[in-house]
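Translate structure to sequence.
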């Protein structure tokens, strides 16, 4: 596929995008805000007059990428105080996370759909000194626009699963041209680097995974202790974190098989628009549950499930629990980040599908910081063992802490790479 054909397909699909945004806005009204930005139209002023200071632009498509980029953003703000920082997003949850983490210290807009004219409006309005795309964000007209304007564009914390590589290989010419127009690529692992190079990438450096450098908030442990007091300090607490569509029922089926007196299950769906959907499931199953957003004191003793329907508290949930399952992995969805749980020293359970975090998952299993479970029955068996044997939990907790500390340093390496392209800007 050529970039001309790619652009033509985008223009054909573009009239449907307002309907898509309005449809998503039914469950998440934030999708109906800042609509003009989706098409490359921005206000002439942002937080007052447009600054003359050079701009570092970082694209974090959603919540996970925004949180992962936090150490890098902090480092860039410290090392380049003369620059402004712009975060672009594709989802409201990513934008909200950027606001929670950085407030007015960074600017935020939506990245437009990747048509040639929208990409041009974005670049001509903002004039970034450098652009950074997180993980696997390949927008071919945006890449070409940066190349034409002499804007160095880097793919950082880059990952390329086997599944994604097969998909990009179907559009070999377009993919190769896009990758070769990037100034540099900072890959998470050697395997990611190899797949990117096989697709045509050059100037690839293995820098590690930024998510190992994400630090828990200073008050996370204290908030976790407070939450645990409210939930019942003597009750065993199992956390199902970042669960995805269809997983909650499987997890609850596993919990129903356990013989753990007083067990409390905390379920935190990955996407906030699913909070009500999971609440409806709990009601259909006849379970006694409460919502974290309504909790302002001790939990009722007969409560079986706490629905974690709040944002920005994942470290608090991890600090409060005895063992955690990391979602997106029981079903073939690729898995979510297990590093945060490990950083809090918690035993981790993961399902068979972890291709989004393949190397980290394998390393965690190899050093006994995590156990992999094949299905609902295996999840139930693993939970029964963990929640019944404190010594096993303690050994896994120690292994989890060692694992999380073993691969730090990606922030420093990526910041040094960026420095090479910021000289003179």
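Result:
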């Amino acid at each position: 596929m050529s970039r001309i054909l790619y652009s033509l397909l985008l223009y054909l699909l573009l009239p449907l995008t307002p309907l898509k945004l309005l449809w998503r806005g039914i469950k998440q009204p934030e999708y109906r805000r800042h609509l003009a930005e989706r098409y490359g139209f921005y206000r002439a002023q942002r937080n007052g007059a447009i600054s003359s200071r050079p701009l570092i632009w970082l694209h974090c498509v959603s919540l996970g990428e925004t949180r992962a980029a936090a150490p890098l953003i902090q480092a860039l703000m410290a090392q380049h105080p003369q620059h402004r920082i712009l975060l672009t997003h594709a989802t409201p949850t990513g934008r909200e996370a950027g606001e929670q983490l950085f407030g007015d210290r960074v600017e935020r807009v939506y990245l437009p759909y990747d048509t040639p004219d929208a990409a041009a409006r974005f670049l001509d309005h903002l004039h970034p000194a450098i652009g950074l795309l997180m993980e696997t964000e390949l927008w071919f007209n945006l890449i070409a626009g940066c190349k034409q304007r002499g804007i160095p564009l880097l793919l950082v914390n880059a990952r390329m699963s086997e599944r994604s590589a097969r998909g990009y290989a179907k559009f070999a010419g377009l993919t190769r041209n896009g990758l070769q127009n990037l100034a540099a690529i900072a890959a998470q692992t050697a395997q990611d680097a190899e797949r990117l190079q096989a697709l045509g990438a050059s100037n690839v450096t293995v820098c590690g995974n930024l998510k190992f450098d994400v630090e828990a908030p200073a008050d996370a442990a204290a908030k976790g202790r407070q939450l645990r007091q409210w939930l019942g300090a003597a009750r065993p607490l199992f956390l199902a974190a970042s669960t995805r569509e269809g997983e909650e029922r499987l997890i609850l089926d596993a919990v129903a098989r356990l013989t753990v007196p007083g067990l409390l299950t905390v379920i935190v769906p990955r996407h906030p628009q699913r909070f009500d959907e999971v609440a409806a499931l709990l009601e259909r199953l006849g379970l006694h549950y409460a919502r974290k957003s309504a909790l302002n004191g001790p939990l009722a003793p007969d409560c079986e499930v706490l629905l974690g329907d709040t944002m920005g508290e994942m470290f608090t949930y991890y600090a409060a629990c005895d063992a955690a399952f990391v979602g997106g992995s029981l079903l073939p969805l690729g898995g979510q980040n297990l590093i945060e749980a490990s950083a809090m020293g918690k035993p981790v359970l993961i399902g068979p599908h972890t291709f989004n975090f393949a190397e980290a998952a394998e390393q965690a299993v190899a050093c006994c910081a995590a156990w992999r479970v094949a299905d609902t029955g295996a999840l139930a068996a693993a939970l029964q063992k963990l929640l019944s044997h404190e010594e096993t939990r303690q050994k896994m907790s120690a292994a989890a802490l060692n694992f999380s500390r073993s691969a730090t340093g990606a922030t420093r390496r990526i910041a040094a790479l960026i420095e090479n392209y910021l000289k003179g800007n």
